[in-house]
Write a structure and sequence with these properties.
Deoxyribonuclease I, Chain A; globular; five-stranded mixed beta sheet; 9 helices; alpha+beta
Length: 395
């Protein structure tokens, strides 16, 4: 029986990581950041993202596991963050309840405790409001003949807060200037594709653009402000027929919002403030973009269009380098080299949709110093292995 591309990739992953791990370990030691002594005059910041692998099929299950103090995914994630030491990190793929207890336990019992000899790390500033994940829509969005269930939520989820996201920061968050976009309707985006999605007029009158959310979280970095645009886009190849159109429009909105596009002057955030960011704002888009630009799958072209507009072609950290493979005592065949290249650039390994889904994309006003990856976590039920992506930036 012929094996799938993802299965073959997963089979070679262990070998690839053995070869490339020394390079990745070196990459995960970024230089001085804004939170360290002597950096105040010309501060740099390390911005990171990862799929936390902390989501379960039942509400409260992740919280219970975390409270045991022995959650392996949380330990892996903590070790990764303690090694890379980002100043701000956007975690996706995490169940977040209304009180953010999951986030508190993660910080207190894992991040603030040494993992295998690493130094604890403290994130004093947290942004973890509820998102659209798992919120009932009251409509049969997945057209299975029944109203209710994960496919009928405003954002796919079996309960509110499933597969949500959180921002952890060592830098102060300007809470008075935070903007969120949970409530903005899909139909209100200029040039939207909601009609192609095939929903009724009743559904389109209530369906938001964001399946999770888009957050504009301003951080104080020295005397400047850096806007972290946290996102967890709809997977373009998801179970619902409309996922690809929704994903395309989410990335279109993100592109236009971050660039100050005048076409968004009429949009309003959850706080009642209109319009996009100023074109001159320092921004970093952080999180999951919902597809891999290089795999020619659903959503690939939308991700590539976003990256092209952001001018981010050179910011593409990987788990290794050609130099590490060239030094090997044998020659890789072209197919195996491609498999290892795919493995090195992927941020999630072990499922059919393995690939680079997680990004840190700075605006042109920010200067990229270094970037890299580190192992983040392995989701025990699914076996999906994720990687932390980090980028060191300066003003």
């Amino acid at each position: 029986m012929q094996r799938s591309r993802a299965a073959v990739l997963a089979a070679f992953t262990s070998a690839a990581l053995v070869l490339l791990a020394p390079v990745a370990a070196n990459a995960a030691a970024p230089s001085r950041t804004a939170m360290e002594p002597g950096a105040a005059t010309n501060p740099s910041i390390i911005v990171a993202t990862a799929d936390a692998g902390l989501s379960a099929d039942e509400d409260g299950k992740v919280l219970s596991s975390l409270r045991s103090g022995n959650d392996e995914a949380a330990k892996d994630l903590a070790k990764s963050l303690q090694g890379a030491r980002p100043d701000v990190v956007v975690l996706t793929g995490i169940d977040v309840d209304s009180s953010a207890a999951t986030v508190d336990v993660l910080r207190e019992q894992y991040l603030e405790k040494a993992q295998d000899g690493t130094q604890p790390i403290t994130y004093s500033f947290v942004f973890a409001p509820q998102t659209n994940s798992g919120v009932a829509s009251g409509a049969d969005l997945d057209e299975d003949g029944t109203v209710g269930g994960p496919g009928d939520a405003l954002g796919h989820g079996a309960f509110e807060g499933q597969e949500s996201m959180v921002v952890l920061s060592r830098l102060p968050i300007d809470n008075s200037a935070v903007r969120t976009f949970d409530s903005m309707l899909w139909k209100d985006l200029p040039g939207n594709h909601v009609k192609q999605a095939g929903y009724s007029s009743l559904v389109t009158s209530t369906l938001p653009l964001q399946s999770t959310s888009l957050w504009d979280v301003p951080l104080t970095v020295g005397s400047s402000t850096v806007h972290v645009l946290a996102t967890s886009a709809t997977p373009a190849g998801g179970s619902e027929a409309a996922d690809e159109q929704r994903h395309e429009d989410q990335l279109s909105f993100l592109t236009r919002y971050s660039s100050g596009d005048a076409s968004l002057k009429s949009i309003v955030d959850d706080q009642g403030r209109p319009g996009p960011l100023a074109a001159s704002a320092r921004t970093v888009v952080v999180g999951s973009l919902g597809a891999d630009a290089d795999q020619n799958d659903a959503g690939s072209s939308s991700v590539q269009s976003f990256l092209d507009a952001a001018g981010a072609g050179t910011v593409a950290p990987s788990w290794g380098s050609d130099r590490s493979r060239a030094a090997a005592p044998f020659v890789w065949s072209a197919p195996l080299r491609k498999l290892l290249d795919d493995s090195a650039r992927s941020t999630r390994i072990g499922v059919e949709d393995s690939g680079r889904f997680d990004y840190v994309v700075p605006s042109s006003e920010m200067r990229t110093q270094r970037s890299g990856m580190a192992k983040a976590a392995t989701d025990q039920p699914t076996g999906v292995s994720s990687r932390l992506v980090w980028v060191s930036l300066s003003r």
